[in-house]
Amino acid sequence: MTSKICTHEKLVSKGIISELRKICSRVLCCADTLGYSRDDQFAVHLAMEEAFVNAVKHGNKQDPQKDIIVEYGLGPEKIEIWVTDQGEGFNPSDLADPRSSENIYKTGGRGVLLIKSYMDSVEYNKTGNCVHMVKFSSKSA
Predict the structure, then answer these.
(1) pTM of the full predicted structure?
(2) What does the DSSP 8-state code read for residue 86?
């Protein structure tokens, strides 16, 4: 039986990608310790990176004085992550599908698509400035 080594943490960081990557490393270290597969760890890593870039670039408009709040919870069955920026938010349903022919060469919307593709559950708060992502352990499926 796997013990709960890493459980829950809420961190506030300036909107600087290098600082946010340190948080990502903490989550991935805990996931590795809990026995998550490399595929699960890759999915979480990719989703966190995309959420961080979106929060910094689109949410906080690249203002390094604005904070990003990262909250995460890890257990043997699932990883939950919340990324909140200080931006005005957005409506994810307003994003154009980057896979459609008229958008194939546009650069926007791919991060949200990747997050949805790699995580098991993705929800945004009503404002659209917080994403909640869940990855279930493939070993417990």
Answers:
(1) 0.91
(2) S
